UniProtKB/TrEMBL annotation:
Protein name per Swiss-Prot or TrEMBL: Putative HORMA domain protein
Disordered: annotated segments: 257-278
Presence of keyword Nucleus: yes
GO cellular component terms given for this protein: chromosome; nucleus
Alphabetized UniProt keyword annotations: Chromosome, Meiosis, Nucleus
Biased composition (Basic and acidic residues): 262-278
Pfam families (UniProt xref): HORMA
Domain (HORMA): residue spans on this chain: 11-236
Primary residence: nucleus
One GO process term, biological-process aspect: meiotic cell cycle
Subcellular location, record wording: Chromosome; Nucleus
The organism of origin for this protein: Trypanosoma brucei equiperdum
Length: 423
């Protein structure tokens, strides 16, 4: 039996992401009553009986065009970072709720996995195909057992994430009788041409951009789907969640890997979560410290290498890059750009420390996601260390400052025309 029978290709991955977004948007708009019943037709999706949004006139037609002609154009080109379906009050002065789909790209990967966590889903669903791409690597970060699974198991996990989304949306309070619907797109600046605007979209106004990033902090993560070529994360922004988050919704994190020593504190969320940075002490315990405390603790010479290495990892944060880092990229950095001699054994220890602190999250063997929220407070501590800053390249310093000032933000597009909906 060969691995080629079960591997997910780039084309299959892209199609899966598009289909997933179609189904998710259809579920949300149907359950929230954003389109008339005539705008949907029954569809069976992975054993689930759903309502599929069909292209027609009116609200359903507009949403379909935004998605098919606009968002998917950016997705197919590898530009799309985030798609948000937004519901506003009638005068558009307040955002009532937002459903966001974040996309990241991993060229060359050959695995497929999905992790799902939440209040009513206590177990992880994980399916893997093939091996991590890139060659080499070997056992430099320790040997990892690769358990092969079939596509049917991945489809079962995919059905679970749709079920979870439906459970959450069905629990929301009713919307206003009159509301306004828009769609917003965010792009990866490092690959998107400055003049690019997909069909049906136009540059967002400064006030819309400011509101988008302001409200982004109040979103609740639901789940994440990783195909090996694309990663799709879902979060929802709703005031209802803000009231419940301290009690039971803080556990709705997109990441939960039992193979990692990094665990997010379920008692913390939102701004508190972003401000907390844990360091492992000599006894292996974890404690939250302020950036001043971190600076004092990292006074000895060995910590300079750790901070230089951490600076490189932080430049992969979603704010300035793709939000992911692989062992191959780390090896390339150590070989070509690192200003200090750092051995592989040190890298193992450093990555475990970053996992424990929540700066990186192990998503697959030799591949990590970089946390955007937890990065900012650490950057402030690093930039206070002149002995570290003097070793960093000009580009690295610029990227770190972007993380603290927020000046480098992804460009935002808004759908042309707003759809006013009446229940």
């Amino acid at each position: 039996m060969t691995s080629t029978a079960t591997e997910v290709t780039q084309t299959q991955s892209l199609a899966a992401v598009r289909n997933f977004i179609r189904v998710a948007v259809s579920c949300v708009t149907y359950l929230r009553g954003l389109c008339s019943d005539e705008s949907y037709q029954p569809r069976q999706f992975l054993g689930l009986q759903l309502k599929q949004l069909v292209r027609s006139s009116g609200d359903a037609g507009a949403i379909s065009r935004w998605m098919e002609e606009g968002a998917f154009d950016a997705l197919n080109r590898g530009y799309l970072k985030e798609l948000s379906l937004c519901v506003h009050e009638p005068n558009c002065t307040e955002l009532l709720e937002r459903y966001s789909f974040m996309v990241s790209y991993s060229p060359g990967g050959q695995r497929a996995a999905l992790s799902l966590t939440g209040e009513s889903m206590k177990e992880n669903l994980s399916c893997s195909f093939g091996t991590v791409g890139g060659g080499g690597g070997g056992d430099k970060m320790g040997k990892v057992l690769r358990k092969r699974r079939c596509r049917q198991e991945v489809q079962q996990a995919l059905a679970s994430i749709i079920t979870k989304l439906m459970e959450v949306v069905e629990g929301l309070p009713p919307l206003l009788c009159e509301r306004v619907l828009t769609m917003q797109l965010k792009y990866y600046e490092d690959v998107t041409p400055p003049s690019y605007e997909p069909p049906c979209f136009a540059p967002a106004s400064p006030s819309t951009v400011a509101a988008h990033y302001r409200e982004e902090k109040n979103s609740t993560d639901i789940a994440t789907l990783d195909t090996g070529h694309h990663t799709l994360s879902i979060n929802i922004r709703h005031k209802f969640f803000e009231q419940l988050r301290p009690h039971n919704l803080s556990q709705m994190n997109m990441y939960d890997a039992s193979s990692s020593s990094a665990r997010r504190d379920p008692t913390k969320g939102g701004k508190d979560d972003a401000a907390a940075y844990g360091c492992r002490n000599e006894r292996g315990t974890t404690e939250n410290r302020t950036s001043r405390g971190i600076t004092n603790d990292w006074a000895h010479a060995d910590e300079v290498a750790f901070l230089v290495f951490t600076s490189f990892i932080l430049t992969k944060s979603p704010t300035v890059s793709r939000g992911r880092i692989t062992m191959g990229e780390i090896e390339e950095y150590l070989r070509v750009a690192c200003p200090m001699e750092i051995e592989v054994k040190q890298v193992q220890s450093m990555m475990r420390r970053l996992e424990t602190s929540g700066i990186v999250l192990l998503e697959a063997p030799l591949e990590w996601a970089v946390s955007e929220q937890r990065s900012a407070v650490v950057v402030s501590a690093i930039l206070e260390r002149q002995d570290v800053v003097s070793l960093l390249s000009v580009q690295t310093r610029m990227d770190l400052r972007y993380l603290t000032t927020g000046r480098k933000v992804s460009r935002l597009s808004s759908s042309k025309g707003r759809k006013r909906v009446r229940a």
